[in-house]
Amino acid sequence: MAAGFIFMAAGFITARFLKRKIWWLKLHRILGISGACCVLTGVCFESIHLSLISAGHFNVAHAYFGMLIVVLSLITPAMGLIQIKIHGMASKTRPIHRWSGRTVIIMMGINIISGLYTAGII
User: Fold this and answer.
1) The pTM is what?
2) What's phi and psi for 81, nearest 5 deg?
3) What is the spatial distance between Cα 58 and Cα 62, in angstroms, rounded to a whole number?
4) All structural domains of the chain with their residue ranges
5) DSSP states of 51-100 as a string?
6) How many CB atoms lie within 10 A of CB 86?
7) Average pLDDT for consecutive 10-residue bins of the chain (122 residues)?
């Protein structure tokens, strides 16, 4: 999950500050898709881990918030790919892609802190 956060944050930084480079979009796409894959993999591993220790899956707010993050982290790259691949959809999907990307990164940061608090680390 932390790797997903790092990849998505790097994708945001790429889109925000490196648009003058000709390769920015390719790097942005790779980082965003990698971030979403890491988040999805993290959720799968955490579900397996909780099943093995016979713990409840949704006992805390951190888990519910996390599932919302998983959905947003899948929607964000999908909207980005749609705006590139489907002609005429850029004007409709670009605002969704931009705001969902910003929102998911902020939510991930909050949920990381929430998870550390729930685990008793902070």
Assistant:
1) 0.85
2) -70, -35
3) 8
4) 2-118
5) HHTT--SSSSHHHHHHHHHHHHHHHHHHHHHHHHHSTT-HHHHHHHHHHH
6) 11
7) 94 94 95 94 86 74 89 93 88 91 94 85 85
